[in-house]
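FW: tagging you since you asked about this chain on Friday. Here's the raw sequence from the shared folder, copied in full. Didn't touch anything.
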Amino acid sequence: MKKKIVALVGMIALSTSSLFSQIEQGTVMLGGDAYFNYGFPSGVKASSTLNISPKAGFFIVDNMAIGATMTFNSIKGGSNFLIAPFMRAYYKGNFYSQLQVGYGRSSFDVAGVTTKTSGLNTELDMGYTIFLTDNIALDPALYYNFYTNGSKYGGSNLGMKIGFQLFFNR
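HL: got it, structure written out here
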């Protein structure tokens, strides 16, 4: 009976070791996020948006990656494009925080007039990486971003997103 318990505990430990393992220097991360948000732009009616964001990163030290992401979205009356470098840090198992600061361009139809703007976008994500295998993971996260498009247009978003990542050389 003791041998069965020891064997069972050993199998559980081996099967879950990839769930809480560090991500080593030199690992490459490729993937992206899809997310839904509800925004509060200044001077425009609040709206909901669906975003698609591919990303690529490289772990410069254990548990810390730098990379770049692009965001594309289309909402009623407008569209956005954003490119941003990011830094992601893992701590306490697979919890992570990610900060990105980028540049974006927007085109919106406001009261029949097309307005084109550009400006900075800053986003902070707090999430947890769930490794399905040693190289494939899901990244659910909460995020907050704020953006400025000159002094007249800007706003913020708060939402949830889910990412799918592939890790190479892990």
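FW: The radius of gyration is 20 Å.
HL: agreed, and Residues 2-16 form the longest helix (15 residues).
FW: great, closing this out.
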